[in-house]
């Protein structure tokens, strides 16, 4: 899929509620992650958007992101303060495994392993589905505060980071434990074409075009596989607050966007569904 059409068409907006900290699809169901004492995971039908059930994650500290794996039929949830990942299988059973550093963003690669972005220590860690550490990659010194990383089918990593003074998205090659920047989009924070202001989350389509949640610019930007600007997918007019998380359903060509305020962790939020 190569997404080169105009600004995305709004398909649906889920009702407002607590801020959404993670979002993924699995087996025809949409999973939303909210920070509550109970029922942190809300499960919706992906066609009707009807709430089906709620699940409670045991022994939580501070939930920060979510992803899923269709191969192992499970959902992964990052626990920032617990320094761990919770694993939810499709039967509803929870297990967890340690990351040892604070996790931020999660993704799953072509080998069905979990890619964990560790914000403070500038590392990407790859784990098996049950938590075996497979490799640790150290990001370059100028990649400060990485939020989210996705590994492409070619083995490169796409990383967004927003540490002053640089706010950008990078494609990186990995050689052993070190990563080198191959392509980059952004630099000094700003709102002009070629700039980002708090790029926080990514989604990648089958042709390796990159969707970027550009938080403080209140838009979602589409970049080519070499990180050339293509267009805006979602504009300020289509959002009530700012985009924070993305999930791309490549089969149905739908982009799910969490839309929430940044004033505090208690800010309200919703999910906007856009056809791309």
Q: Can you walk through the features of this model?
A:
This protein is mainly β and 276 residues long. It has a domain at 139-238: 6 Propeller (Neuraminidase). It is built from no helices and 25 strands. Strands 1, 2, 23, 24 and 25 form a five-stranded antiparallel sheet that branches. A four-stranded antiparallel sheet has the order 3-4-5-6, with no helix packed on it. A four-stranded antiparallel sheet has the order 7-8-9-10, with no helix packed on it. The chain starts with 8 loop residues before the first strand and ends with a strand. The model is unreliable at 1-5 (pLDDT under 50).
Low-confidence stretches: 1-5
User: Kindly state the mean pLDDT as a whole number?
Assistant: 93
Based on the coordinates given, report the CATH architecture of the domain at 139-238: 6 Propeller
What is the helix fraction of residues, given as a range?
under 10%
What is the string of SSEs from the N terminus onward? EEEEEEEEEEEEEEEEEEEEEEEEE
Span between N and C termini? 10 Å
CATH-defined fold name of the domain at 139-238: Neuraminidase
List how many beta strands DSSP finds: 25
Instruction: Output the radius of gyration.
Output: 17 Å
- The computed structural class is mainly beta
Strand content: over 45%
**Which homologous superfamily in CATH is the superfamily of the domain at 139-238?**
TolB, C-terminal domain
For the biggest sheet, the summary is:
5 strands, antiparallel
CATH level 1 name of the domain at 139-238? Mainly Beta
Judging from the principal axes of the Cα atoms, what is the shape?
globular
